[in-house]
Amino acid sequence: MRTRIKFCGLTRPGDVRLAVELGVDAIGLVFAAGSPRCLTPDQGASLRSAVPPLVDAVALFMDNPGSEVEAVVRRLKPDLLQFHGSESEAFCRSFGVPFIKTVAMGGGASDAATARKRYPSASAFLLDGHAPGQPGGRGERFDWTQVPSLGRPLFLAGGLAPANVAEAVRIVRPYAVDVSSGIEGAPGLKDGGRMQSFVDEVRRADRSAPE
Ligand SMILES: O=C(O)c1ccccc1NCC(=O)[C@H](O)[C@H](O)COP(=O)(O)O
Q1: Which of 52, 62, 89, 135 is least surrounded by Cβ atoms within 10 Å, i.e. has the fewest?
Q2: Mean pLDDT computed over every residue of the chain
Q3: CB distance 159 to ligand 1 below 6 Å
Q4: For residue 51, what are the CA distances in angstroms to 66, 80, 93?
Q5: At residue 110, does pLDDT exceed 70?
């Protein structure tokens, strides 16, 4: 199976264009307050316009007020929303856009055990290495041998980088991998060489994996 790739936390049109050229499946745009990658709706709209059809634009939030999510949904028309905080199922689905729910793996597997029941309409779960209540995008990985079965497509995130993503894909066989800091030169500024190496490594792992 071809592992899908999501690059998250892009802040520059040139980074979006290169990600698309490299064949990534989804681009994550961060609207979480306090993040070094946080965009205004205007900045987000400009980046979104560089995402062509058949590549998903994902708008990411962490406990934002509903009015902020609505404003981004209206302006950007994202393909997917990603909720990173303690948002309820009802809140996540109230915008009428399919959503991914992040599950924090840094505090152990307890959140993961409840996520499947708590978010019945999530299109996918994204397992991330940070502790519950903490922001992501900080390169924190978790034990890849402790991946729960959640009955939905699984995005593996947290501390992935060109040097370790092939191993992660071989161990977990996720639906998709998601990376932010591991392809950056500085927070929010993606590095072209690392973006290319990350994609190459995922494809290498896909070729060597049994069908
Ligand atoms: O990227 C951020 O700054 C951020 C802030 C607040 C909540 C979530 C955030 N990012 C979440 C992501 O989707 C990251 O891609 C994910 O945590 C993986 O990050 P990394 O370990 O740096 O690859």
Answers
A1: 52
A2: 94
A3: yes
A4: 24, 13, 24
A5: no
- What's the whole-model pTM score? 0.96
What does the domain layout of the chain look like in residue ranges?
4-208
Q: Is 138 exposed, middle or buried (0-12, 13-18, 19+ CB in 10 A)?
A: middle
C-alpha 27 to ligand 1 mean position (Å): 12
CA separation (Å) from 30 to 69, 147, 176?
11, 25, 18
Burial label for 204, CB within 10 Å (0-12, 13-18, 19+), is middle
* The dihedral sign for the CA sequence 170, 175, 181, 185: positive
Query: What is the residue with the minimal CA distance to atom 1 of ligand 1?
Result: 137
Among the atoms of ligand 1, which is closest to the Cα of residue 183? 23
**Residue 11 near ligand 1, beta carbon < 6 Å:** no
30: closest CA among 157, 168, 201, 197?
A: 157
Predicted confidence band at 72 (pLDDT cuts at 50, 70, 90)?
very high
Cα–ligand 1 centroid distance for 74 (angstroms):
23
Does domain 4-208 bear CATH number 3.20.20.70?
yes
Q: What percent of the chain has pLDDT over 90?
A: 82
